[in-house]
Amino acid sequence: MHKPLTNSAECINMRQPRLNNSVLLRVKTSNKSQQHTKIKMKYFIIAILAIVALAHAEDEWKVKTAADIKVIRQECIKEFPLSEEDIQKMKNFEYPDEEPVRKYLLCTAKKLGIFCAHEGYHADRVAKQFKMDLDEAEVLAIAQGCADKNEQGSSADVWAYRGHKCLMASKVGEKVKAFIKKRMEEAQKQ
């Protein structure tokens, strides 16, 4: 006959199986392994957050000033020299579909931060950079119409040239041309 239980603690203790040392060791090892995994996960999450923060910091694009654009153009002309003939054509807003001109335009678009070889033109940045006295929403719509997804699989310079040609043929291009002409006239007067 069994001895009657006197308190609930004895009941609980009787229901739990007795654990031998090997089972306890496995539980302790398992707990250490779980703690190690938790620590790894914390570091992994911290690393992911750092990468996201870095990507966001790099995405802090700002509209370029006229001085910034001048420096960018000078850098790109050094990197991708153009013939005197091409330079004269570009001063008249003619952009021949030739590799040196395309490479120069790609360079300037990349350094302006409005084009990348993976995504093409960033229409939102184009709108901010070239809105001038136009409504930004209107410029954004034009830029979105000119920015394609490169379904043709063109090289980056051909892709950038295609978007540039479209933008320069638009209302935005007309404003840019008028602005540049005015600046050139002012420079000649000085």
UniProtKB/TrEMBL annotation:
Keyword Repeat in the entry? The reply is: no
Q: Kindly state a single biological-process term from the GO annotations of this entry.
A: sensory perception of smell
Q: Know the name of this protein?
A: Odorant binding protein 99c
Keyword Cell wall biogenesis/degradation found: no
Family annotation (InterPro entries): PBP/GOBP (IPR006170), PBP_GOBP_sf (IPR036728)
Species name: Anastrepha ludens
Molecular-function annotations in GO: odorant binding
Q: Which gene encodes it?
A: OBP99c
Per UniProt, the keywords (alphabetical) are:
Secreted, Signal
Q: Which family does it belong to?
A: Belongs to the PBP/GOBP family.
Xref: Pfam families: PBP_GOBP
SUPFAM superfamilies, alphabetically?
Answer: Insect pheromone/odorant-binding proteins
GO terms under cellular component: extracellular space
Where does this polypeptide localize?
Answer: Secreted
